[in-house]
Amino acid sequence: TSRPTRHACVSSKTRTSRHNKIVSKITGKLHGAWTEESVAWPALHSRDIVVMGERDLPLATAWVRNPAAEVHVLGQPRFDALAGLGREAQRRYLEKLLAPGNRRAPARIAVWSCQPFRPDRLKAQAVLLLDGLRAADGDWGLVIAPHPAQSADTLSPLLRRDGRPLAAVADPRVGARGCLAGADALASAYSTCGIEAALLGVPVLEIVLDHPNVSQRTVPPDTCVLPQAGDGILGGPLQRHRIGRHEPGALALDLAHLDKGTEAHESTIAALIEHLARQHIELRGHARNAPRFDAGWSRGDDVFIAEVKSLAGAREDQQIRLGIGQVLDYAHQLQLARTRGRMRPVLVLEKQPTDSRWTSLAEASGILLTWAPDFAGC
Question: pTM of this prediction?
Fold first, then answer.
């Protein structure tokens, strides 16, 4: 076992007063850790965001998408409610999950407090935990407790068909906090649930996958799959960049890079971010090893790969031809790589083109042609 990485702090009158002032301002909230891999759409677009410590402040400030967002440092939570937890009731809940009806429950039960990581990382953690419990002394079962940002459907595929060891997924409304008091051990990569478990005397297991031998032993090549459309293609959230100033003659002629520096280009991206955000879709950049497309997003099994072109300050036909060639090239590269999901090349324009023939040409080429401000088809 290892100690949890976050430390409990004793609440004071000052902290309680500050807590009340901050909470009274909140119009929306996100529960859970703020990390690059687990940050969700509501967090990015919330008006007020509360983080637990100063170390979370720079990342939260850098990732917010609401231009009027404010980030508040609240401090560690209070743990007064732990004194009233019903250990026996939570134990019965765990046993019924693992052994419904008249089946025999395992003698010892571990609770895995999940974090909203990518599917491949959750798979690796599940393999590590299930292998470890199978090899451990005693009769163990595992209850997977979803994070508030997860659903049970996301975690059910992690269960092994052979049922060894016994494993089940807790109701997301219960979560780790609703059952950890009845566990014999709590496992998590990082979570404040680790603090609560330690205060209750429940051993805490920290999941670490970066040991030199762990990845080879627990994640064989046949399990390293891309289970979601856009994996390996879409990168982190996309945001509008500031436009730099350059002296005349200081730029080399590169049509693709020249366009990215224009105000119209960035304004179009900003408008597309807002348009998709209203549909609860996050606009993202390209992954590290993917073609360098301007923007991308996914909807179901469809992965949209977009090139954004401004029409101001350049010949319209030149810009559209350049964009068509680029986005077809990106889609072709991804199809050759056999990436998961159906590629949908998109050419996004700053405004409606003056010549209507571009729409029919795009359709004949399998490209979605759209433009601000309505972004039809997106």
Answer: 0.44
